[in-house]
Amino acid sequence: MAQPQQSEGEGADKPPLRVGMVGYAFMGAAHSQGWRTAGRVFDLPRQPVLSAICGRDPDAVRAAADKHGWAAAETDWRALIARDDVDLVDICTPGDSHADIAVAALAAGKHVLCEKPLANSVEEAEKMTRAAEEAFARGQLAMVGFNYRRVPATALARNMIAEGRVGKLRHVRVAYLQDWLVDPGFPLTWRLRKEYAGSGALGDLGAHIIDLAQYLAGERLAGVSAMTETFVHERPLPAGGVKGLSAVSAGGTAPVTVDDAALFTARFASGALATFEATRYATGRKNALRIELNGDKGALAFDLERLNELSYHDGTEPGTHAGFRRILVTEPDHPYLEGWWPPGHGLGYEHSFVHQARDLVHAVAEGRRPDPSFADGLQVQRVLAAVEESAQKNSVYTPIAV
């Protein structure tokens, strides 16, 4: 059996933080990179150790363990939670299992990191948040994984807005555009079934931009008016079938039960207005997330396809030479950059997961509430629910429950 991976050198004599992860696909690979790398880049108070990874397919999960450096593999998440060499459970599974795994892990005395969206419903998210509050009283932490908060440029934008660089917020406009479902022949996956994913583009992409908008603005949304659409209502089943649906003969199809796109307007508690678009049908767009915030003293814009940059307009400058200017976010005093490369050497998508692991390790070592907490994930879930309710009512403005 392989030994758990940890950092070399000084990190070896630090108290370990032994991680067990449920799920090994796309998000599992990204989280593995984060845990494997964080202690090699940053001076952490505890050393992440990759103890065990879990998945239902024994051959596939063992291959993932070998590829990403996990010491052991499990095929039952209950067995992973019960392991004595696991201090923290990282949940990278479809949303329908988040609540069961998280609540059980907290009850077993583990810290928890759960991928977004926190759950498939407000009720599940409320249950998870209650369990997290009870666990915090026992010294356990629970965090939801909104990794785009950990891009250095967005963290810098949050600092600048908090310092008053854009003044009183007036407008936020944000879009998250992908095109991987444009082909109607693309096969059905669990992400296209409501019982497993909760929603479609709304929960998958919309959860990210709702959290990012609120994080940057420093305030919460108060209400929404929404539309959603499903463009392709039936898709072919893959040869091996889909979880919960049996494989069928060639040419067989099954219903898509989630949205393909969501559009909504919103109002922040301060009165600032916002527009949101989340779609997996934006032909030509692969992973295009863009947000702009306008205030009475300036504006900031961020584009994930230029994730080492911010655009900033100082509205207090004379109009003769004012305008948006590019900030290259690679300086050592920019957020998270102290552990990386010389100025001008950019980072990538995977680094947001390294920074996520770094922040959670510090929170665990210090015994403080992580950010974002399960309560933050619950609030995003309430916004998602309000969007769905508004869309069902033909775009009637829907207040968000507090």
Write a structural description.
With 402 residues, the chain is an alpha/beta fold. The protein has two domains: 9-147, NAD(P)-binding Rossmann-like Domain (Rossmann fold); 151-350 and 374-398, Dihydrodipicolinate Reductase, domain 2. It has helices spanning 26-41, 58-68, 77-82, 98-107, 122-136, 152-162, 194-197, 201-217, 351-366, 374-392, and strands at 16-22, 47-54, 72-74, 88-91, 111-115, 142-145, 169-177, 221-229, 234-236, 253-255, 261-268, 273-279, 288-295, 298-303, 309-314, 325-328, 398-399. The strands form three sheets. The chain has a nine-stranded mixed β-sheet with strand order 16-15-14-13-7-12-11-8-17. It has a six-stranded parallel β-sheet with strand order 3-2-1-4-5-6, with helices on both faces. Strands 9-10 form a two-stranded antiparallel ribbon. Strand 14 (298-303) and strand 15 (309-314) form a beta hairpin. The longest helix is centred in the C-terminal third of the chain and has 19 residues, at 374-392. The mean pLDDT is 94.
Key descriptive features of the protein:
single chain, 402 residues, alpha/beta, Rossmann fold, Dihydrodipicolinate Reductase, domain 2, 2 domains, six-stranded parallel sheet, 17 strands, globular
